[in-house]
Amino acid sequence: PWALYDHHREHDPVHRSELLGGYAVFGYELVREVLVSPRFSAYHPFRTSRRAFGPSMLDRDGAEHQRLRSAAAGPFRPRAVAGYAERIVAPLAGELLDELVAERRTDLVDALARTLPFRVMCRVLGLPVEEAPWLAATLAPLVDYVDHGPTTLAEVTRRREELRDRLQRARAGEARDGLLADLAADERLSPAEVVNTAVLLLAAGTETTAAGIANVLVALGTRPELYRRLRTRREEVPGVVAETLRHEPPLHVTLRFAAEDVDLEGVRIPAGAPVNAFLAAANRDPSVFPGPDVWDPLRRPQRTPLTFGAGRHVCLGAGLAVAELETVVNAVLDRVEALDVLAPAPLPSGRTFRAASPVRCAVRPA
Ligand code: HEM
């Protein structure tokens, strides 16, 4: 998609798209403006791309958004996140890697990316880790649907109801420790809102993080010298993770609606029209990130990449996601001497989670 993003950013920054049924913006400042400005709304009475997951803070504005977000925010403060990384992520990543080595399996992307984020979210929410595979299978058709995959609406509805039933039972007393119990005890939230928030956390926090893990493993697997150096220079790990998230953001695009008639760069966007904000295109804007297509872990950008969005809806789990990626890289560096990317092949995928499976590769302990 990168050539297409470049083309639009240069020639047609506010693009009217029949295909997307609305407008699309590509440059850093425009994308940021759409996310930050009150002239664009996350809510639309008839249309939201997130309906696959049901209603949540993600498609609310104003005080309603604030109420839902602040109820869920506590567990995502930096200190809590550091605790999750140490108590939950590091041991789980270690376990998965030890299993891989013991069983002489070779596919690290499979062992970590497709497994770890689901286990982490189980632990964070307070569900049994054994349910992680079920959760992954239940979420997959919902993610496919958002991603314009082949899933049918009936399947989406059925899976969503299964998920809601499961979380409903957990809310009603089974999950004593963890975020679900905390949300259930919060009087600002109705029972339905507790379940909706949990669905959102699962939806927003698993496939995205899985894509991030896959991308960072591939970035390291294709750079053996860097990998060797990192083994003794762990202080460079955060730069590797940050640059991978800029260069290959897991979520390429998010959606807003014009709250009023808006003039953007001379293009009139009528009230109610959908506007696609291409985060991935913003992250490769050469006026903000010089030489944007180069993956450079020593880059110290002046502006924040838009990988996690911006403004009121900026990713609630960004700190956890970054901690998860850094912890995974360190766990791999601890145990695996060298990486090797075997037969990378692009997978067919949709727009939104384009990077969810960027390459199918096996990365093996040497
Ligand atoms: C929102 C990306 C991981 C929870 C967002 C948004 C983006 C994003 C771009 C803003 C969407 C918009 O403005 O329309 C990512 C990426 C991740 C990641 C790339 C991984 C690399 C997580 C994790 C969690 C999480 C681990 C939770 C455990 C949320 C929530 C929102 C959100 C709750 C909605 C916030 C709101 O509407 O106020 N994420 N996310 N995300 N994310 Fe993440």
TrEMBL record:
Keywords: Heme, Iron, Metal-binding, Monooxygenase, Oxidoreductase. It holds the Pfam family p450. GO terms for molecular function: heme binding; iron ion binding; monooxygenase activity; oxidoreductase activity, acting on paired donors, with incorporation or reduction of molecular oxygen. Gene3D superfamilies: Cytochrome P450 (1.10.630.10). PROSITE patterns: CYTOCHROME_P450 (PS00086). InterPro entries: Cyt_P450 (IPR001128), Cyt_P450_B (IPR002397), Cyt_P450_CS (IPR017972), Cyt_P450_sf (IPR036396). Signal peptide: none annotated. It comes from the Bacteria. Belongs to the cytochrome P450 family. This is Biotin biosynthesis cytochrome P450. The gene is bioI.
